[in-house]
Amino acid sequence: METENREIIGYGWLSNSERQGEAEVSVAVSVTGRGYGTRILHNLDKEAKKLGYTCIAATVRPENPCARDVITWLFKNGYKADCFPEGSQEVVFEAGKKIPISMVKSI
């Protein structure tokens, strides 16, 4: 994604694995909270649907300093995670453990 000045501020990537899309979204910290990442994510959802995928997944790595915000954002955009207790959206990263969190959305 580019600004009017052609400055690249974010990108989205969609790969596949057995009819499931794997989404990757990255947006410059200087423009977070302005809807660019959401726009990219929705475009990836549309593309995955066109390709016939039944779901799309995103992995949040705990070393990402914005991991908690990203997980909250994915929940707001329809993603779920099997590793959370029923109805909970709280994530606890245990000290010293770096476990990626996989989020999945049916499409």
UniProtKB/TrEMBL annotation:
Record has Chaperone as a keyword: no
Protein name stated in the entry: GNAT family N-acetyltransferase
Keywords on record: Transferase
Pfam family, one: Acetyltransf_1
GO molecular function, one term: acyltransferase activity, transferring groups other than amino-acyl groups
Organism: Desulfofundulus salinus
Keyword presence, Transferase: yes
Location of the N-acetyltransferase domain: 1-100
Cited Gene3D superfamilies: 3.40.630.30
Ranges in a coiled coil: none
